[in-house]
Amino acid sequence: MLITSRDNKAIKSLIKLHASKRRKERGEYLVYGETLCDMALESGTVTTLIFSSEQPFSQSGFPDKLLVADRVMKALTDKANVEICAVCRMATKDFLPGQSVVVLDGIQDPGNLGTILRSAKAFGLSNIFLSESSVDLYNIKVLRAAHGAHFALRVKSGNLDEYLQHSPNSLVTTFIDEENDFSHDPGNVYDIVFGNEGSGIRRSLKALTRENLKMTIEFESLNVAIAASIILYNHFRSVS
């Protein structure tokens, strides 16, 4: 049956997933566009497929699917020009043992978070920790910037101070007001912390036992996503 109104009960419920609060309550989020939906299907996280075109709807063998009018699809996808949307369940995976963790403290820009996730995947780093003050992992702008990287990563979120208190890993900060005293030990597993776009890493971490990694550049600072990508590639990428 073709759903033609955004006032349909099922559609109204799905539109609520645009809000971070609703996503967290329900443990679900939306992705849209053929590329992200294909990645979502491959990851096994899709619960419902939504189409606005009859032919792919008819050809899809997915058990739970909806056919909607174009105007309904635009309501679901924030007016994007796409013909497919997917409802996905949030998946929490344990960190890979023996692998360093990319720790993000208060990253607010969705594009920055997505870019860091994409770089981490490209460089073979699967473990990501998001602090309690970071942008929502399932914000659609994050998902689009990450280009599906989050499906392959092992992302956890929570209180950063508590995480570091219990983490057995060696701590590496990236304070720009400290000199570089980092010496990479291939036998070590690290927590590598990157901070907020404006305020950087929380100052309380200065009291912890750690090393600091600062890039020497002929400029005051770099965008956090660019800096993180360079540091992860140069010092922490997996070569396996």
- Rg calculated over all Cα atoms: 20 Å
- Superfamily (CATH H level) name of the largest domain: SPOUT methyltransferase, trefoil knot domain
- Between the first and last Cα atoms, what is the distance in angstroms? 50 Å
Helix content: 25-40%
In percent, how much strand structure appears in the residues?
15-25%
What is the mean pLDDT?
94
Top CATH class of the largest domain: Alpha Beta
Q: What overall form do the CA principal axes indicate? A: elongated
How many domains is the backbone divided into? Answer: 2
CATH architectural grouping of the largest domain: 3-Layer(aba) Sandwich
Number of helices: 9
As for the CATH topology of the largest domain, it is: Alpha/beta knot
Succession of helices and strands: EHHEHEHEHEEHEHEHEEEH
Describe the largest sheet: 6 strands, parallel
Please give the number of β-strands.
11
